[in-house]
Please model this.
Amino acid sequence: MGERRGFIRIVSRIYLPEAAAASFRLAGVAKALREKGIEVEVVTTTAPPGVPVSDQDRVRRFPVLRDKEGYVRGYLQYLSFDIPAFFRVLFSSRAVVTLVEPPPTTGFFMRIANKLLGVPYVYYLPDLWGAASASFAPNIVVKAVKALEAFAVRGAAAVIAVNEEIAETARVMGAKSVHLIPNGIDTDTFTNAVKPLSSAEREVIGLGDAPYFIYTGTASEWQGASIFISALAQVIDKIPHHLVFLGKGSDWGLLQEQAAKPELKGRVHVLETLPPDETARWIASADAGLVSIKAGAGYDHAYPTKVLSTLACGTPVIYAGPGPAREDIEAHSLGICADYSPFSLAGAFKKIAAAPSVIFNAEKQRGWVLENKSLVKSSQAVTQVLINCTSK
Model:
């Protein structure tokens, strides 16, 4: 054991500069802790190839298995992080509290490691992994995931849930203490105060001067982002808009395949992930950001962070599917909500194409995020939970 004392440890398979909701969320917490004069140590993975790293905290990185899209996703990949992380935590300096990010396998190993060290841990619960696995995994796997998730939740000094449904499920699992802290977004990175896209940047992908709708971030089976391409096909001769996809995910190959269809006339552009500040420029120049959740895939409760990054850039959202984000979008006129169907989305496309700047106001979209969903506020709330756990 080393002699360092008084620091807080974050354990996560994903962290900045790898762009993901968890990365921004955890980096926000680390920043909030630093601002209170608390040292932070992060145990995470080596960044994907070609992604520059500029760590502000003590970040201990090690290589892991990644899938063909470059994600640490799948239980063999998870274990390639969890097992080394277990020993790195166990045989290193003792933190005062540990913040643990899912998957449940990480929660399982971190409960054991922190129990042996006598260190309390806080478990982040942004999703219900057991419920999500039920939509695609065999019953025996679903039972195992639910057992691991409950084991991680029950052992935590506190659980942070991002919505009430998750919070209630954590209580049923036997959580000692549950704190409802919705996700926030980095409003310094995602902003409409960005350099507009140049003609050259637009021309290089074949966009030219055309208006466009944009989808950013992960596109996997539970988002079903290809629905937007199907919707454009229905109105391709009625609106001038293109679709731009920025990100990656298990459905990325499907998106590329669909974009190549001749009937889409080169109006769909499927690009690789860009750094967050560059992504913000593309969002801010779009007429709308696209967000989808496929009903029944285990994520009906999710509040996609891409909703917040879009609004923070002053861009309205076209939202397809179920979820709590619908309530905010409809209640505060932050965009248009549609059914998860090409016909319904085609109608939303036509409505925004008719007069985007008249229907929605950029400052209103951003102002709502600043007031209600900023990363600063959510990170400060998580920081207070961590501090409270150190004093117990």
The first strand starts at residue 8 and ends at 11.
